[in-house]
Amino acid sequence: MISEVIDNEQVELLLNDVLETHGYDFLEYSHASIKRRITRLYALDSFVSFAEFRYTVKTDKQYFKRFLEEITVNVTEMFRDPSFYKALRNDVLPVLGTYPFIRIWVAGCSTGEEAYSLAILLKELNLLNKSLIYATDINPSVLEKAKKGMFPLNYLKQYSENYLQSGGTKDFSTYYAANYSLAKFDESLSSKMIFSTHNLVSDHSFNEFQLILCRNVLIYFDKDLQHKVFNLFDNSIENLGYLALGSKESLDFWPKAKGYKRIKQEKIWRKL
Which of 31, 50, 71 is a domain's end point? Predict the structure, then answer.
């Protein structure tokens, strides 16, 4: 058993190491949640001391990859919160369909389920051919998974139910081929996606978008960092473009929120 209890100062030292050595800035993440994840990993990998843990994170590139995977939260599913996707299908994408070209940014895309869900919606509305989905994440190894478009077959029952509840009318299995324990999604979907690493904390705006989705990422950030990210999005959204957040996230306390109007019941805002 590990007797050492990790204190706030140790967490701070470790996060400073990570920033200085690897260039990832977790200092403004919600302190409670990042401390919980660091403590969990430390216990899981049975280090002799916190000093050894710090040294390994700092010097061992392979181990840092594992650290990154454990510290960044990668919980996602296709068509998660079906009513949200229904709103995209009925209220948002048809408006964007009047544009000559649609650029969408899925920020914090994790293993890519959200990007594939969007591509399916666009395809069903005959808009995929004139759309481009930029899917970004801080974590390179989840992006590798996302690029492959392969998901465990045992998840597909839930994904299929979500799809139908979100207003899908086709047989969901037409979008993938089952291959042993994996479902591989159609390459016509991924051909309209660009996957790349992007750090919401330190990287800048890289394009102008009509729609930005950043769902269930900001709950792990503190208030100041959330506002910093909203400013980044504000610089990246065209006038009359849309910003979509997760069910527990909101623009409400951000100083520039008055420049956005919320659409119906969902966490979707339109830039005025």
Answer: 71
